[in-house]
Amino acid sequence: KAFEHIIVETRGKVGVITLNRPKMLNALSFGVFGEIATAVDDLEANDSIGCIVLTGNEKAFAAGADIKEMQPKGFIEMFSNDFIAIRGDRVATCRKPTVAAVSGYALGGGCELAMMCDIIIASDTAKFGQPEITLGTIPGIGGTQRLTRAIGKSKAMDLCLTGRMMDAAEAERSGLVSRIVPSDKLMSEVMTIAEKIAEMSLPAAEMAKRAINRAFETPLSEGLQVERDLFRSTFALEDRLEGMAAFIEKRKPANKNR
Ligand code: HXC
The pTM is what? Predict the structure, then answer.
């Protein structure tokens, strides 16, 4: 498919979506969100893909929603053609594992988009923030919710009320980011991680992801029950039988994603 604002590639079992509006620091227009949604649809439907990477460029993952596009809009336009209508949350609903590779600015909608991914890997130049307050608005696609769950109330309030940026070290310390890597190694490290995930049994990875995501939606007892049911379900997988046999026979498992 031809995309205007993003580049989509498959590298082995990994699908890579690269935001490609460098002159605007990858500002997320409605069109960009729509293209990301289509790319996720395609990669999710592609049986040879086991992990999806979302990235930007060295200077910016994404500096937020496109302020020039948003500025003239009124309530009814944003209400009836909002970020949900354009499937702006498509990355969050993806069944397959997703990794955000963040270098430079991840601000506003950019930070929110990164937080829709399962794992955030940051380069040492990464800067995260929710500066919407400085524009007289607030986060609109998960910033007040996912950030609060990721880093706690005090820091989420700090970021959303002052609009300040958080560097990679603070983001890792706070639990937003799982690892920091040197800027020039970001993509190679992220590809290593994504390839490793893509080698696993895909249904098992999807079950692990689904179980972890339940932790955000349910009381502990309910989440534990979901985990137990999914754990038992893995005993219906050929990959589970093969994985355990391979361990016992001291060899690598040959996953069939079944
Ligand atoms: C539109 C943007 C943009 C954005 C940058 N640009 N961010 N255009 N929307 N979010 C454009 C600039 O206008 C400029 O275009 C070019 O990209 C380069 O940016 P500069 O500002 O010149 O770069 P620099 O001085 O390095 O500053 C980088 C920056 C700054 C600190 C990241 O660009 C910035 O503050 N951007 C806005 C960040 C922000 O407020 N994001 C939240 C958006 S609201 P020209 O044509 O002048 O060269 C939001 C709501 C989410 O995300 C709701 C749900 C999705």
Answer: 0.97
